[in-house]
Design brief:
Protein name: Gustatory receptor
GO cellular component, one term: plasma membrane
Keywords: Cell membrane, Membrane, Transmembrane, Transmembrane helix
GO biological process, one term: sensory perception of taste
Structural class: mainly alpha
Number of strands: 0
Helix content: over 70%
Oligomer: single chain
Subcellular location: Cell membrane
Order of helices and strands: HHHHHHHHHH
């Protein structure tokens, strides 16, 4: 039987693979595996080229513009590491999903209840997915508008449309990697919640049950707990470098944005008073 959770997360996993985030799951078809590898290898080849193009296109003319140049470097390195990490940790990813599958198989009598939880999780992740897409493109739109607004006063390259497309694609990869990590965390949280609910249910039943039934259920509880901890362990192994670099990249972007707002207000006090900032 196919793994239930993967069935409900089919759309999410497919979109992440398109971006080069090569997530491996049990029962993947040969076509899906080939597609995931092609997308990841293509991303590994394209990201350095586009990163170099963007980096050279925004070479700083003054010292203060070096922040932008350095941020481009950090962003594309982060996106490259994300794709490389997901491609090189396929064995760890399989172990994570296999332990989730083993947990599923231990809930034979409660499988319908577990399926309801999966449906809720899938809808919840879909909302997060579209919010991140809207947030990402919304920020890009605002940035482009601000760039066009001040293009006569600020050093802006002429081919800004192509550059922003490359830049936005790298940003989307980093944000979708965050979403894939959130997906794993929410999956583990959901299983922990379901495990605790089942313990409360068993607490009411076992006091009126035979010794053999009690032993059977206690063994199942032990296995579920062990598999859950193993899943947590392997999920952490799959998100080491990418999440560290994502945190560094996000912190640097925030610092740069605050610095840019400060310097722009200093350069254009008239426009700041008019309400642009």
């Amino acid at each position: 039987a196919k793994m239930l959770l993967v069935k409900y997360l089919k759309f999410h996993l497919g979109f992440l693979r398109i971006l080069g985030i090569c997530l491996q799951t049990p029962n993947m078809s040969r076509r899906n595996k080939v597609f995931a590898y092609i997308c990841s290898i293509s991303a590994l080849l394209v990201l350095p080229l586009t990163g170099y193009y963007v980096f050279m296109s925004v070479l700083p003319r003054v010292a203060s513009e070096f922040l932008v140049n350095f941020q481009v470097l950090v962003l594309f390195i982060t996106a490259f590491v994300i794709v490389l990490e997901t491609l090189s940790t396929k064995g760890m990813q399989f172990r994570f999903w296999r332990f989730i599958e083993k947990i599923e198989n231990l809930y034979e009598e409660q499988l319908s209840d577990l399926e309801v939880e999966y449906k809720i999780l899938s809808r919840y992740q879909m909302k997060k997915f579209f919010l991140i897409i809207l947030y990402s493109h919304g920020l890009d739109f605002v940035t482009i508008v601000m760039t066009k607004l001040f293009q006569e006063e600020i050093n802006v390259v002429t081919n800004w449309t192509v550059i922003w497309w490359f830049y936005g694609s790298a940003i989307l990869i980093t944000r979708m990697r965050n979403l894939s990590h959130i997906l794993v965390i929410d999956t583990l949280t959901m299983h922990t919640h379901f495990f605790n609910q089942d313990l409360r249910r068993l607490g009411r039943i076992l006091q009126f049950s035979s010794n053999s039934y009690i032993v059977k259920e206690l063994n199942l509880i032990k296995l579920r707990h062990a598999y859950l901890w193993e899943a947590v362990y392997w999920s952490n192994k799959c998100h080491r470098w990418s999440q560290l670099l994502n945190i560094v990249d996000s912190f640097y972007k925030l610092t740069e944005a605050l610095y840019w707002i400060y310097t722009t207000r200093e350069k254009f006090p008239g426009k700041a008073k008019m309400g642009y900032f």
